[in-house]
Amino acid sequence: LGILGENLAVDALRARGYSILARRPRSRYGEIDIIAGRGQLVVFVEVKLRTTGLFGEAFEAIPRWKQRRIITVALDYLSRHHLLDRPVRFDVAAVNERAGALTVEIIEDAFTEDG
User: Fold this and answer.
1) pLDDT tens for residues 34-55?
2) What is the pLDDT of residues 44-96, one digit of tens each?
3) What is the pTM of this model?
4) 85 Cβ partners below 8 Å, 6+ apart?
5) For residue 115, what are the CA distances in angstroms to 30, 67, 68, 111?
6) Which residue, 9, 20, 40, is CA-closest to 106?
7) Given the DSSP bridges, would you call strands 88-98 and 41-50 parallel, antiparallel or unpaired?
8) Which residues are registered as beta bridge partners of 9?
9) Which of 7, 16, 29, 65 is deepest in the core (most CB within 10 A)?
10) DSSP 18
């Protein structure tokens, strides 16, 4: 299901005019699901998929410790690709099952480096 959720998120991002810069890039600090870009903007996207509402919505599943890890991986990526001067945003692609269909909601600025 994770790959399906990522594929749906990629499709939703492309439909909004983003290019996909990387999928699941890894570093010694961890992994980011999707890195997208539009113009100078670099967007780090965490994909969360939920098939039931028992544990809350997909976007609620990113605790502060995970946000910090994503930010650390993002900084490493920006540094290695000489993109530290670019504007950055952290989004969540919330993939939820509703009435048997999967829907994707892109939540822009889901979290920031400052918390």
Assistant:
1) 999 999 999 999 999 876 655 5
2) 999 998 766 555 555 566 888 999 999 999 999 999 999 999 999 999 999 88
3) 0.90
4) none
5) 19, 8, 9, 6
6) 9
7) parallel
8) none
9) 29
10) P
Q: Which of 90, 63, 61 has its CA nearest to residue 75?
A: 90
The residue whose two tokens read 């890039």 is: 25
Q: How many CB atoms lie within 10 A of CB 106?
A: 19
Tell me if 96 sits within 8 A of 60, measured CB to CB.
no
Q: How far is CA 43 from CA 10, 19, 52, 53, in A?
A: 12, 10, 27, 27
Which two three-digit tokens encode residue 83? Answer: 């993109």
DSSP summary character for residue 24: S
SS3 label, residue 100? coil
Is 33 exposed, middle or buried, given 0-12, 13-18 or 19+ CB atoms closer than 10 A?
buried
